Amino acid sequence: MEKTLWHPVALAEAVVHAPLAVQLLQQDLVLWRDQAGQVHAFVDRCPHRGARLSLGRVEADRLECPYHGWQFAADGHCEHVPAVPDFVPPPAHCVRSFAVQELYGLVWVQLEAADVAAPQFPAEGDDRLRKLNCGPYDVAASAPRIIENFLDMSHFGFVHEGWLGSRDATAMERYDVEDTPTGVRATNCKARQPQSNLHSTAAADVHYTYEVTDPYTALLYKLPEAGTSREGWHESIGLFICPLTPETSRVWFRLAVADFDTPDAQLQAFQHTIFTQDQPVLESQQPKCLPLDPRAELHSAADRLSSAYRRYLKARGISFGVCR
Ligand code: FES
Ligand code: CO
Predict the structure, then answer these.
(1) Rieske domain spans which residues (predicted)?
(2) Minimum CA distance residue for ligand 1 atom 4
(3) For the chain, the helix, strand and coil percentages under 3-state DSSP, each to the nearest 5
(4) Contact at 8 Å (CB) between 280 and 257?
(5) Which ipTM value was assigned to this complex?
(6) How many angstroms separate the alpha carbon of residue 241 from the centre of ligand 2?
(7) For residues 164 and 193, is the Cβ–Cβ distance under 8 A?
(8) pTM for this structure?
(9) How far is the CA of 238 from the centre of ligand 2 (A)?
(10) What's the pLDDT tens digit per position in 231-276?
(11) Which one of 54, 62, 65 would you pick to mutate in the ligand 1 pocket, going by the greatest count of ligand atoms within 8 A of its CB?
């Protein structure tokens, strides 16, 4: 089931002239960009003698294997065998290729053809918001554990003490959780944050909405802080995860912010600080798979969103990164 979903595999700007090796759902892939700027994704294994195609190079509109120089066109078909220049390879001489699209500054791949749309990031189309990516982060945790961490506010006072929370204000107000046609949503999530963003000079009450629309995607909408934001502007963070293996993931954050002045590096540094606070705890969690059986871990009323996310994964039949 996971193979029919679209997954992010690389920053679009990382796929330049040289082929790039990436991994998705334990499948090694090679990404390469042709002369027209189109990105392609193949199995990273030459069908001739099994060499890694990502060690090869792009020759005009073909990917050339590093070993004997066989050249593969965008659709994966082999079009040139240098040792036998007159040979016209039959259709079966091909490497498996996958559907690719570029979205949100990332390259997305679908391993099994299906009529499925890539995850939505509604803030993308809002010109009043500036968009930029943070990452990749390679994390020794399953994708669902990482999503759940992103949806969790009750760790703020501990993991992000002095930033997103403080130990003397850990009680969480009740928030609302609902199922949506595509996932789950939590509204009225409130927290008092000592340093809620790069420019904070004093603690602020923040109001969040969280949304899961895809098994390995989560969105955060930050409602304006009183007196600091302009009416109707909802800053947003998208968490996009590539499940590499059941226990390892590659993570990007897409920020959509009202701030057009601060340099990218500074905005990324704030996000980096927060995520590197999460990372050691995330990587310490056992088991690395996310247990969907409600009896496998203990819960409190603050965990209602996490429980809803687990039920959603179960209903969707997700198996990669969850406990069997
Ligand atoms: Fe790729 Fe021989 S192994 S051309
Ligand atoms: Co955190």
Answers:
(1) 6-109
(2) 68
(3) 20, 35, 45
(4) no
(5) 0.97
(6) 15
(7) yes
(8) 0.95
(9) 14
(10) 556 789 999 999 999 999 999 999 999 889 999 999 999 999 999 9
(11) 65
